[in-house]
Amino acid sequence: MIENLAALRREYTQGGLHREDLNADPILQFEAWLQDVITAGIPDPTAMTVATVDAQGQPSQRIVLLKDVSEKGFVFYTNLESRKAKELANNNKVSLHFPWHLLERQVKICGQAQPLSKTEVARYFLSRPRESQLAAWASAQSRPISTRQMLMSKFNEVKQKFADGDVTLPAFWGGFRVVPHEIEFWQGGEHRLHDRFCYRLEQQGQWKIERLMP
């Protein structure tokens, strides 16, 4: 048992976040922060939590990698038979979270997930390393499997199947674009007096920025 877990804490001292520091466009603000993470050499800068909800209202989270960001939204790819894809088919409301702890920053995004076109999916799939392409075929994502040996056996079967040619796009593999209506930027502050700014998309298509209590 870990002793005195409740006492584990540290101060956030890397600086505050002010309204005048923010870009009027949250996508440009996000790209600036993402570039800071990349420049700082922090591992997995594009890792994000994707939260979905099942038919019973039970939330579920997992970490995936952001593969594109633009004014259209935030893109990730997945097996369309996975738990997250099935939940998104039933309820496309989704939340993303980027935990950039070493810079004492977080970004939270709320929006709706829209399926990507086959053209977009194929373009990305064909750009992946061959081993990743094979793994997409080998893994029936989210389904039970008794041993890792069975998974590796399936991978080797797929590897042999495509030994003499290119790996084709599986029909069960695709992606989503999360179109945001709310984006929050969080910067750690001393004494737990953090700085939080939330962008909310208004009906006129403009973003409204509000400071939130920490």
TrEMBL record:
Residues engaged in binding substrate: 9-12, 67, 124, 128, 132, 192-194
Superkingdom assignment: Bacteria
Pyridoxamine 5'-phosphate oxidase N-terminal domain ranges (all copies): 35-161
Cofactor(s) required for function per UniProt: FMN
Pfam family of the protein (one): PNPOx_N
InterPro entries xref list: Pyridox_Oxase, Pyridox_Oxase_CS, Pyridox_Oxase_N, Pyridoxamine_oxidase_dimer_C, Split_barrel_FMN-bd
Cofactor mode of binding and number, as noted: Binds 1 FMN per subunit.
Domain Pyridoxine 5'-phosphate oxidase dimerisation C-terminal: 173-214
Keyword Flavoprotein: yes
Subunit record text: Homodimer.
Purpose: Catalyzes the oxidation of either pyridoxine 5'-phosphate (PNP) or pyridoxamine 5'-phosphate (PMP) into pyridoxal 5'-phosphate (PLP).
Full protein name: Pyridoxine/pyridoxamine 5'-phosphate oxidase
Organism ancestry: Bacteria, Pseudomonadati, Pseudomonadota, Gammaproteobacteria, Alteromonadales
